[in-house]
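Discussion board: Methods & Data

I've been asked by a reviewer to show the raw model output for two of the constructs in my manuscript, not just the figures. I'm not sure how much to include, so I'm pasting the format here to get opinions. Each protein appears as its amino acid sequence followed by a line of discrete structure tokens. Is this the kind of thing reviewers expect to see in a supplement, or should I convert it first? Here is construct A:
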Amino acid sequence: MTRLIEPQPGILDIALYQGGASHVQGVENVIKLSSNENPFGAPESAKAAFAKAAHNLHRYPNTDHASLRKAIADVHGLDAESIICGVGSDEIITFLCQAYAGVGDEVIYTEHGFSMYKISARAAGAQPVCVPERERVVDVDAILAACTERTKLIFIANPANPTGTMIGQRDIARLANAIPPQCILVLDGAYAEFVEGFDGGAALVETRDNVVMTRTFSKIYGLGGVRIGWGYGPKDIIDVLNRVRGPFNLSEMQIAAAEAAVKDRDWVEKCRDDNTRLRAWLAEALMELGVPSDTSCANFILARFQDQAEAEACDDFLKSNGIIVRRVAGYGLPNCLRITVGDEASCRRVAHVIGQFKDQKVKGEQGLTDAASEDQSGG
């Protein structure tokens, strides 16, 4: 028998990340609404830039990502020297935990928060601390109550995933002002572009020495398959993160695609406007079917069912009809399904199939009631 060579403490406590499903066995041409991807894809400019960069596969990429950082800075009005780029915002989260949290330290995340916060904390040897939310919304007072002298990082997604809810700038500033001096507040702005006029927390970063913002190209830019993210923070923190970053963590294709995408503001505006319109339509359509959701500020809605059994039955029914959504029991929301806002045809299709599911459920319950009545009358 092969002896198990023990990893560092906490590693085996990490639950493997479960991404959104892409396939249903025996079903072709599925509608995938499980990973919050842009249904319109990436802008053509990004595709062309990626293809052009592929001609130099034999060359090492630029190690400081200077052109991409400048493009991001120019578009968002930021300081390029305060930007770091990574393989998705996940890698920036990993850098933060690796550099600032270790054995004996605590990393705070909220009740329904993105699972990579907990995974990255454990991988660094730190203790993840889960803080309750209030009706699926981040609770600033609960976070402050959970802070101790061991707290090193606090992760908040705003807008949040998988709830889609959001807290205001005043609450975020209050949190940043009140956290312990040894602690960094990390604002995950993966869905910030879906909120018109929202800077994701960039202005707060520029006025504090304890706030870092992360962003991604995987959502509104449609580059989930390329994996690019970035972080914005005080120069001393960015310097620390660059010291744990691998020198060639991004390929030239990634850099070129992201640079082209961030400059294509017309594409971003179009995708945001379409998402806002279709999200409102889908939420209203499901509400009329008896499936409520909180007001979402992202590119998905969190559909709430009567209980876990109904949510799972609806998920199974959707799959049988070639539609994949996301169960979120692992995020403490067993009675919910997270549904990506797709294109118009996808939104209409998912609403129609959920309507069919509800009709069948009502007919089934009525059948049981009728059968019970017959049994009683026959007795």
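Construct B, same format:
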Amino acid sequence: MAMAKASLSKLSLYLAVSAGAYFVGEAIAKHGLSANQAVKLVCDQFKPRGPIIGTWVMEHAMRYPDHDRLTYIYHGGFRQQVGYDLLEYEFIVDRKTGEIIEVTQIENDAAD
């Protein structure tokens, strides 16, 4: 009997998590990514190269002309340790689709 309750409890938890994930997915499809989701999306792509040291992102989406359409994007950046180098990047992510439109490495102006 206790085993049946434990299995039922696990099933209930699984269904609740699945339903929650579904509704979050629906919210993203309807309203787009949040700024934090955009940062996570980009950083997840770069993590295999080395640890992410710090991130920043503009909290409000900005208008961005993309060829023949106007889209809203998040602009942000991050630092990453790759070997002995600390690299800086800026990125642009489409708020609605989650597409990473651009990632640019920023040149460090090291003092000589």
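Answer (T.O., handling editor elsewhere):
This is acceptable in a supplement if you add a one-line summary per construct. For B, something like: The chain is about 40% helix and 40% strand.
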